Write the structure tokens for this entry.
Amino acid sequence: MDINACKSVTEMDCSSRQISNLDGLQHFENLQTLDCSYNTITKLTSIPSKLDYLNSSYCINLDSIGTLPNTLTHFDCSYNQISTLPNLPLNLDKLLCSVNKIVKINYLPPSLTHIDCSFNNLKKLPELPESLAIINCSYNELTSLPDLPPEIGLTYNNPLNIFNNNINCVGEYSALFEDLLNIYPNCIDSPQIVTQNILLPKGWSIFSINGSGIEKSLDQALSPIISEVVMVKNNNGSVYYPEWNYNGVGDILLGEAYHIKTTSETALNLDIEYTDPECNPISLTPGWNLVGYLRNSPAPADLVLKELIETENLLIAKDYLGAVILPEWGFNGIGAMEAGRGYQVKIEENALLHFLPNESNYGQ
């Protein structure tokens, strides 16, 4: 099949064909359904950008899966050899990843309704999305359960499977699970409070926080330097005018960034509740977004934004000085992203901006 013919293919079932590689998959630009289960492939990369359904189950040698497209709603990688899941797209509805070697799931998309992560090496689950209706996390090494969303148990029989774990405590749950979970005490979280130092130059700049602010309101958070603040704006154009005692921005939020104008160079010290960057991806909408950088240490901007670049979603990114990333030219004029700074990102379609854990390095 030539490359032009590949473009007309929207569905592909190549299951149980003893296939060892899927080189050339990127030429199927309009592919929406792919079933490559029961093969001998070891990696799955260059996944088409319009894919809605992906089944790579029972590829028992498969240990590497590339960037998943934003269009994906069904992902089945059961009975693979995966230790780290790829970043999960915003619109994912079903995640089937049982019988792998997964040690951590950083984040679950807000649209997810089904997850089967049984028979892995998980010690902890992330926050469960409100839309989740059924979960099987049996045969792991879990020591706790997060809060259970209200949708669980309303539609399906046997919606919660937690057998063969090491659970010591559980989060909040509905009366539906009283008989199953009342033998466990409630988990009590102890927040880790740290002080973030944000340096602000004279004039206009962009700042963000990399944790949850103890002082939620923007005017309260900026009160230590209020005499030097002229104006603050968020991505929607809402403003905070200290001179008029008007706060149209509201609360300062994790993941968002803010334009700020100051009369002199100053430093803002904020007490924040530390959060894991990998557990808090930032939702992006088409057009311009003001985003924060949630990690403690700097990282090359083109590598932080690599997933958006690979899916051809990123049009341009800028810092407060006007330095840019131009993906089409492979140009990174920003250099490294830094904690406390904010960045302008322009994209074509809805997406999530994911971050690596603080202990991981980009490019390695």
